[in-house]
């Protein structure tokens, strides 16, 4: 299997473009810090995109003002991935975005005023539903027709990429923008706190002392095109998405199974589908949220699939924070950059291996490796596990 | 009658929305997290931490600390008394 | 092409385990309520105690479908939902703004859109593909499309469904935003098994399904869809519609056929009500052998168009 990736775009806590994100990854510079834009307790550690909504609206040149931050971030990344592509009636173009909470950032403002009977603005709710966040992005890019949104918690972004690849392979579309976007909200921050897995210190993926995640926000999109489309667009192929799989853990509402059942299935099936041999996977961008449960379960799954020969792996969540539905798409961009520039990123804040599994992630930037194929994992609530394989191989 | 334990049983039923269960169905020492007992899970454990704060003013910051305390209604009552005595 | 091997709906109508319902149901009156089965016979008590309306409906319909189709496990579970788990979402939002201190986590966990698909997988121990589409009024059509892609990729049986739940605040919101519907807002879930081959269980076939977001030319889109499926002007025996697509010549076809039906009169209004329409269409085909082709034209939201072409088993 192989589907062409011809454009990438990203906005995250470590940068507002592909170039800025790459620079931060290479410098080992985390974007997680005390909250500045969101109205929250000042010492809360988050991976914020350092742009206010007003600046985003201005930069994006929007005339419509009733737009959720999720759409704004998504639009910024989607525009970068779309690049100079042109619309033509010859090509069927679609968009699939992923979000976990859609326009919740604005619904919160409404609901606070609603509860205190302080003249709530019902118009704010027009951006609540997740589908509307994608419609806004589509409208600004002039895309109509196939417009879809997936919402499977933290694996959503990876699932959007998978669905786009399948639609192209089955000839339903000629090109499709696929990705995900999530803004930081008090809803999700409070939610992960209520689960007691929000770390007040910096998140430490795959470290024995890990104690939870730091949330982040951001968006990323890939442009996938078939051969007909690249012939018309003239876009160069950057990389390929070769394998994908989604599997249900069916273990628990939030926790991953100790055997890593769903994760193991997703990784195995994605690699099988790619046609790339297990030993040719050169780097793994892990889900690695920094919670006790995920990192242990994911380590077990890596052991299940790769045995003694686990490729260099790391989690980049200590750079960006956990960006929920955007994570799969953001990490897809990181995986593509790893292949393009032969990089394996450091797993920041790691010190000691997890006692049960003893896996050691990449701890400093690796530039000497030949990175041909990358596995990217995204695992979510409800036992929703997805894996993608990217490579330079057609 | 130990009113703390009776109160706890009512609070557990309410907090965890245990339909069809009455306080008299819960023995003081029956295992809360065992399938032979109430068969609670890790989400319930978090709800019990909320219960301790809401009704008893006790804060549990480390979920692991709850594990020992939440074995049964008896151990929960002991834990509450110990924490309150400590203060 | 997908063969429908099972269909199950819980709604404000007596639809659940009631084949032939389309003959007897009447248009909904204001103030209608959800008709719930005894969930205890479908869902373990331990799981049931936490479940909101949308979760109960979804899991019960799913289990009913699997039993009807006579399969052990579907190869995948795909759910469409327009607004997701509203009850738990509002509950957590409310708690987080009114409670000082620790918040109960259950409503947060169950607020995510994929809770239905996740709970179904958990309830039946399914490790297959598990997906949730949320594209407001087109969420169900997108789920069906995904299911049909999987059948083309070689899977055999896919559980596909849709669910949305009504909460009180929705009435106030729709009034303030001047989105008014005659029949009122309702809750419902409909689930189906889509199979890759005809069997004794086959109820009807889905020939094609299409979604057009930010649509501007409804009439042309309907025409193109029918043309691609080689359905002539008289080829449709019935049209079920929502919203106002009637300007289209393809909807107001010749007089000797059955009049188009606004299905929201029966289902009430919720984002995935076209799933109710699918079950309604299948059930009508079961009752009336002259219905060979039915088009569901979902224009509930005027900027979104969903088209589903259903064919009877005999056609």
Please render the helix and strand layout as text.
The complex is a heterotrimer of chains A (394), B (87) and C (315).
Chain A lengths: L2 E9 L6 H10 L5 E2 L10 E2 L6 H8 L8 H14 L10 E6 L5 H12 L14 H12 L4 E5 L5 H14 L5 E8 L3 H9 L23 E8 L1 H7 L5 E10 L12 H14 L8 E3 L6 H15 L6 E2 L2 H4 L6 H15 L31 E8 L3 E8 L3
Parallel strand pairs in A: 4-5, 4-6, 9-10, 9-11
Antiparallel strand pairs in A: 1-7, 1-8, 2-3, 6-7, 8-12, 11-12
Helix pairs in contact in A: 2-3, 3-5, 6-12, 9-10
Chain B lengths: L2 H13 L26 H15 L6 H7 L3 H14 L1
Helix pairs in contact in B: 1-4
Chain C lengths: L1 E9 L10 H4 L20 H4 L4 H17 L6 E5 L5 H13 L7 H4 L5 H10 L4 E5 L5 H14 L4 E8 L3 H9 L11 E8 L8 E10 L4 H11 L9 E6 L17 E2 L1 H4 L5 H15 L5 E7 L4 E9 L3
Strand order in the largest sheet of chain C: 3-2-4-5-1-6-10-9-7-8
Q: Could you give the count of β-strands of chain C?
A: 10
Q: Quick one: biggest sheet of chain C? A: 10 strands, mixed
- Please identify which CATH superfamily of chain B we are dealing with: ACP-like
**Mean of residue pLDDT values of chain C:** 94
- Decide which structural class fits the backbone of chain C: alpha/beta
Number of helices of chain C: 11
Query: How much of the polypeptide of chain C forms β-strand, as a percent range?
Result: 15-25%
Task: Provide structural commentary.
The complex is a heterotrimer of chains A (394), B (87) and C (315). Chain A is α/β, with parallel strands linked by helices. Chain A has helices at 18-27, 53-60, 69-82, 104-115, 130-141, 156-169, 186-194, 227-233, 261-274, 292-306, 317-320, 327-341; strands spanning 3-11, 33-34, 45-46, 93-98, 146-150, 175-182, 218-225, 239-248, 283-285, 313-314, 373-380, 384-391. Chain A has two domains: 3-233, Thiolase/Chalcone synthase (Peroxisomal Thiolase, Chain A, domain 1), CATH 3.40.47.10; 241-391, Peroxisomal Thiolase, Chain A, domain 1. Chain A contains twelve helices and twelve strands. Chain A has a ten-stranded mixed sheet, sandwiched between helices. Chain A is globular, with a radius of gyration of 19 Å. With 87 residues, chain B is an all-alpha fold. Helix content of chain B is 56%, strand content 0%. By secondary structure, chain C is α/β, with parallel strands linked by helices. Chain C has two domains: 2-195, Peroxisomal Thiolase, Chain A, domain 1; 205-312, Peroxisomal Thiolase, Chain A, domain 1 (3-Layer(aba) Sandwich). Helix content of chain C is 33%, strand content 22%. Chain C has helices at residues 21-24, 45-48, 53-69, 86-98, 106-109, 115-124, 139-152, 168-176, 218-228, 264-267, 273-287, and strands at residues 2-10, 76-80, 129-133, 157-164, 188-195, 204-213, 238-243, 261-262, 293-299, 304-312. Chain C has a ten-stranded mixed sheet with strand order 3-2-4-5-1-6-10-9-7-8, with helices on both faces. In chain C, strand 9 (293-299) and strand 10 form a beta hairpin. In chain C, helix 3 (53-69) packs across helix 6 (115-124). Chain C starts with a strand and ends with a strand. Chains A and C meet through helix 4, helix 5, strand 5, helix 6 and helix 7 of A and helix 4, helix 6, strand 3, helix 7 and helix 8 of C.
């Amino acid at each position: 299997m192989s589907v062409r990736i011809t454009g990438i775009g990203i906005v995250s806590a470590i940068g507002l473009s592909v170039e800025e994100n790459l620079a931060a990854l290479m410098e080992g510079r985390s974007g997680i810090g005390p909250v500045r834009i969101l109205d929250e307790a000042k010492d809360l550690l988050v991976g914020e995109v350092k742009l206010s909504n007003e600046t985003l609206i201005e930069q994006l040149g929007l005339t419509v003002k009733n737009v959720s931050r999720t759409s704004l971030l998504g639009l910024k990344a989607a525009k970068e991935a779309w690049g100079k592509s042109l619309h033509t009636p010859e090509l069927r173009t679609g968009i699939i975005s992923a979000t976990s909470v859609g326009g919740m950032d604005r619904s919160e403002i409404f609901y606070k005023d609603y509860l205190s009977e302080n003249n709530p603005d019902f118009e704010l709710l027009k951006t609540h539903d997740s589908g509307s966040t994608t419609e806004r992005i589509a409208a600004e890019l002039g895309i109509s027709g196939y417009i879809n949104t997936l919402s499977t918690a933290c694996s959503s972004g990876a699932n959007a990429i998978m669905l786009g690849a399948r639609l192209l392979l089955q000839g339903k579309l000629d090109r499709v923008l696929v990705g995900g976007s999530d803004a930081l909200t008090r809803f999700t921050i409070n939610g992960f706190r209520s689960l007691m897995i929000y770390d007040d210190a910096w998140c430490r993926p795959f470290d024995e002392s890990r104690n939870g995640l730091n949330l982040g926000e951001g968006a990323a999109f890939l442009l996938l095109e078939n051969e007909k489309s690249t012939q018309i667009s003239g876009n160069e192929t950057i990389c390929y998405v070769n394998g994908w799989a989604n599997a249900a853990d069916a273990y628990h509402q939030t926790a991953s199974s100790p055997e890593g059942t769903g994760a193991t299935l997703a990784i195995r099936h994605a690699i099988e589908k790619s046609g790339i041999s297990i030993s040719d996977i050169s780097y793994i961008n892990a889900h690695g949220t920094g919670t006790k449960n995920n990192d242990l379960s994911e380590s077990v799954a890596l052991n299940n699939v790769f045995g003694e020969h686990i490729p260099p792996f790391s989690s980049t969540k200590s750079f960006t924070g956990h960006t929920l539905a955007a994570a799969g798409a953001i990490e897809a961009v990181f995986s593509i950059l790893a292949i393009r520039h032969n990089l394996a990123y450091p797993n920041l804040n790691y010190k000691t291996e997890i006692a049960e599994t003893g896996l050691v992630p990449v701890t400093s930037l690796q530039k000497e490796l030949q990175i041909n194929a990358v596995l990217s994992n995204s695992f979510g609530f409800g036992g929703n596990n997805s894996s993608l394989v990217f490579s330079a191989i057609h | 009658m130990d009113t703390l334990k009776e109160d706890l049983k009512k609070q557990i039923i309410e907090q965890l929305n245990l339909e069809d269960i009455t306080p008299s169905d819960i023995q003081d020492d029956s295992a809360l997290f065992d399938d032979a007992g109430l068969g609670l899970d890790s989400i319930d454990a978090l709800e019990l931490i909320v219960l301790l704060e809401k009704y008893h003013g006790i804060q549990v910051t480390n979920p692991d600390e709850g594990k020992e305390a939440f074995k049964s209604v008896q151990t929960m009552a002991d834990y509450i008394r110990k924490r309150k005595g400590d203060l | 092409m997908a063969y429908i091997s099972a269909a199950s709906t819980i709604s404000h109508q007596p639809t659940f385990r009631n084949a032939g319902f389309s003959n007897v149901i009447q248009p909904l009156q204001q103030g209608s309520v959800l008709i719930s089965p005894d969930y205890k016979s479908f869902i373990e008590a331990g799981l049931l105690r936490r479940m909101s309306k949308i979760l109960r409906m979804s899991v019960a319909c799913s289990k009913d479908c699997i039993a009807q189709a006579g399969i052990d496990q579907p190869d995948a579970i795909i759910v469409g939902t327009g607004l997701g788990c509203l009850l738990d979402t509002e509950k957590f939002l409310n708690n987080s703004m009114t409670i000082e201190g620790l918040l109960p986590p259950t409503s947060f966990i169950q607020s995510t859109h994929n809770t239905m698909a996740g709970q179904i997988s958990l309830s039946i121990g399914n490790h297959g593909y598990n997906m949730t589409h949320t594209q407001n009024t087109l969420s169900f059509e997108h789920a069906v499309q995904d299911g049909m892609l999987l059948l083309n990729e070689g899977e055999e049986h896919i559980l596909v469904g849709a669910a949305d739940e009504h909460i009180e605040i929705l009435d106030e919101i729709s009034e303030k935003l001047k989105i008014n519907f005659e029949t009122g807002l309702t809750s419902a879930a409909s689930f189906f098994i889509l199979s890759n081959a005809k069997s004794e269980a086959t109820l009807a076939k889905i020939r094609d399904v299409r979604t057009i977001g930010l649509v501007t030319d409804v009439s042309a889109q309907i025409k193109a869809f029918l043309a691609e499926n080689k359905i002539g002007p008289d080829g449709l025996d019935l049209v079920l519609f929502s919203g106002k697509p009637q300007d289209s010549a393809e909807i107001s076809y010749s007089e000797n056929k059955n009049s188009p039906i606004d299905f929201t009169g029966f289902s009430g209004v919720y984002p995935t009500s076209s799933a109710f329409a699918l079950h309604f269409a299948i059930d009508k085909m079961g009752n009336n052998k002259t219905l060979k082709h039915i088009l569901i034209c979902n224009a509930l939201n005027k900027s979104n168009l969903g088209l589903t072409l259903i064919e009877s088993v005999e056609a």
